[in-house]
Write a structure and sequence with these properties.
By secondary structure, this protein is an alpha/beta fold. It has eleven helices and eleven strands. Strand 1, helix 2 and strand 2 form a beta-alpha-beta unit.
């Protein structure tokens, strides 16, 4: 009888312990975050994704009450960093930048991850791209640049963020229209900018906010904007449509994402914090300076934005094959 009583007591204790873990995750989620959150920036230092990630993490720290160290994991058009993010625990303590350049690369069948591997918390930046040259390039207008490309196909070089990105898609569309330039990809943004500033490449494909310092110093000048309307901050720069190219909608958007399966309440808290951060004067000043201000896009709308962009890039690639 004593033995049976002891066995019953042990089994009852084991049953109680087995029940406890079910309550533990809820407790942890209610107190999220209770430790530092790592933010993986999926491109190298000095580029738009890096600037955005570091600015947002700095503003989020007091809002969330924890430190948010930034780690740069560059390579494969952002896919190297996103692979690390996708394989991290889905607990909200590892976040990453997910930007349109990488989404475009998925349409080119690059990378081992896709939209379904992530919960997109919020899209917080959006901006059109342009072509930039040095003032000493000899190209005062986009027409002069394109005429040279037509006369000597493939001799002009364009510094881009990589193959399969919207940079690459734009170069392909231009080539289909007779303006053939050679794509020269750079994994590190700073090296890409320096290549054109230093005259090692002829043209830079980039967003104006990422190279503000070079625009302000006069080391680079814009020739064309890939949008339906002229940029309000660069009213003298023509759109691609004005010179006969239908290249619009290839915007650069940037978002913060988490591994797929992150608990809904954790995603909700992060989303709320990012929205609060986006309203601060610090963030508004930053996005105005980088020409990227938008109201954050969240939830199903953010996911649809990513899916639609991937589909658009895929269709444009198919039409150019």
């Amino acid at each position: 009888m004593a033995i049976r009583t002891r066995i019953a007591t042990v089994l009852a204790g084991a049953a109680a312990l087995a029940w406890l873990p079910a309550a533990t995750p809820t407790f942890a989620q209610e107190n999220f975050p209770s430790r530092p959150i790592e933010l993986i920036v999926t491109f190298g230092p000095g580029g738009g994704a890096d600037l955005m990630g570091r600015q947002m993490s700095q503003i989020l720290e007091p809002i969330l009450g924890t430190s948010i160290p930034v780690t740069n994991v560059a390579g494969a058009s952002g896919n190297a960093g996103l692979t690390r993010l996708a394989t991290s625990p889905a607990d909200g303590y590892t976040l990453g930048t997910l930007i349109s350049l990488t989404v475009a690369s998925w349409a080119s069948e690059l990378g081992d991850v896709g939209a379904d591997d992530f919960d997109i918390i919020a899209v917080i930046q959006n901006t059109p791209s342009m072509l930039f040259v040095r003032p000493q390039s000899g190209f005062d207008t986009v027409e002069a640049l394109f005429d040279k490309a037509r006369q000597a196909p493939g001799t002009l070089t364009v510094a881009t963020s990589g193959y399969g990105t919207q940079d690459d898609v734009t170069v392909q569309i231009l080539a289909e229209g007779g303006v053939e330039m050679s794509n020269v990809p750079f994994a590190a943004p700073a090296e890409r900018y320096a290549s054109t500033v230093g005259g090692h490449t002829d043209v830079l494909y980039e967003e104006p906010g990422d190279i503000v310092q070079f625009l302000q110093s006069g080391q680079l000048v814009p020739l064309v904007v890939f949008d339906n309307e002229r940029h309000p901050d660069f009213p003298d720069v023509p759109t691609a449509g004005e010179i006969g190219f239908d290249i619009a909608g290839l915007y650069t958007f940037r978002s913060i994402a988490a591994p797929a399966g992150t608990p809904d309440d954790v995603i909700a808290k992060l989303e709320e914090a990012i929205i609060e951060a986006s309203k601060t004067e610090e963030w508004q000043s930053f996005c105005r300076t980088t020409y990227t201000c938008i109201d954050p896009v969240t939830g199903d709308e953010a996911r649809q934005m990513v899916d639609d962009f991937r589909q658009m890039i895929a269709e444009r690639l198919d039409s150019n094959r």
